[in-house]
Amino acid sequence: MADAEKKKKTDKGDPAGDVKWVRKDLLGLRDLSVAEINLILDTAESFQEVSQRAVKKVPVLRGKTVANLFLEASTRTRISFELAEKRLSADTIGITGSASSMTKGESLLDTAANIEALKVSLIVLRHPSSGAPYRLARHTAAGIVNAGDGINEHPTQALIDMFTMRQEKKTIKGLKVVYIGDILHSRVARSNIWGLTKLGADVIVCGPKTLIPWGIEELGVRVVYDMKKAVRDADVVTLLRIQLERQNETLFPSLREYGSSYGLDSEVFRLAKPDALLMHPGPVNRGVEVESALANSPQSVILKQVTNGIAVRMAVLYLLSGALPND
User: Fold this and answer.
1) Are residues 21 and 142 in the same domain?
2) Mean pLDDT, the chain, as a whole number?
3) Residue 61 carries which DSSP code?
4) Checking DSSP bridges between strand 277-279 and strand 122-127, what pairing results, if any?
5) For the segment 45-82, what is each residue's pLDDT rounded down to a tens digit?
6) CA distances to 143, 149, 283, 299 from 24, in Å
7) Domain check: are 316 and 280 in the same one?
8) Are 16 and 142 found together in one domain?
9) CATH code (residue 35)
């Protein structure tokens, strides 16, 4: 690639340059450098073209096996990973918590050891406990991809969000990005905060005080409790689902009251910049987090996020496979 062409491809803020991927795992964005994040995003751009072909497949993972170990409910993430693996020509195994020997008392480490004994190269893990992928990565030679662990991180979803922002806005540096909703329990918000602040975005979190983690300002974000003030002049507004399944106590009176105070409608969204993006990692609770018409508006890129998920996850699997020892 010529120098000018290479610069054009990577000049999206801080370029990836000649950085080489050396990690066997993707556990979170907290530990990644700016160059590593941009390398994933740049690589995803090249894989996006694959999905536009008549034959949507490349042979880069032919001969490798990927196990999808999902011990928590998932639709978009699981299907997105499965499609990404198939388009890379990998062999795949799907394992859910209810269909695994963990229901019989087998530990996560023993389950992974048995999977690895089948010569699996990569394990995509979704787990309800924060830190589970980190523990697994220390005890297996297989590459581990964190597909969401408890309330800790969801790195591939954050990479998808950043990839979508970069496509629509050309750069992330300097963007005002607002997150509204259940910040306390959102692993998506945490991963995005780590990634976006590193890439130079101005990140604001907004929601009821009971759903804003204490001390979150130390991560480099601003807290604004008034939704109208938070949304004003925003480049990107991302809504987050109220995660009732993770709440051990009532943190607000009712969904109806939450919706009336923090549900985004067209009137409030007009306070953002005229070309502002509306995002949501899903699933969307229409009428609670967002007005249905707004979710379907031209400024909504919610379905683009879903589409972009395949290219981003193809990039992650490809880069990790290159850092693994030969099978």
Assistant:
1) yes
2) 89
3) T
4) unpaired
5) 999 988 888 888 999 999 999 999 999 888 999 999 99
6) 5, 18, 30, 37
7) no
8) yes
9) 3.40.50.1370
100 pLDDT above the threshold of 70: no
Q: Cα(93)–Cα(120) distance, rounded to whole angstroms?
A: 9
What pLDDT is recorded for position 253?
52
Residues 12 and 143 in one domain: yes
User: According to the model, what pLDDT value does residue 254 have?
Assistant: 65
**The one-letter amino acid at 195:** G
Token pair, residue 220, equals 């480099």
How many other β-carbons are positioned within 10 Å of the β-carbon of residue 128? 15
With a CB cutoff of 8 Å and minimum separation 6, the contacts of 67 are 92, 93, 94, 95, 115, 120, 122, 123, 124
pLDDT score recorded for residue 12? 45
**Residue that the structure tokens 């005080």 belong to:** 209
Q: Are residues 123 and 103 in the same domain?
A: yes
Give bridge partners of residue 92 from the DSSP assignment: 66
Hunting for tokens 């259940």 — which residue is that?
Answer: 182
Three-state DSSP at 123 gives strand
Neighbours of 216 (CB within 10 A): 18
Give the domain extent around 253: 155-305
Name every residue whose Cβ is closer than 8 Å to that of residue 53 and which is 6 or more positions away in sequence.
Answer: none
Residue 260, judged by CB atoms within 10 A of its CB (0-12, 13-18, 19+), counts as exposed
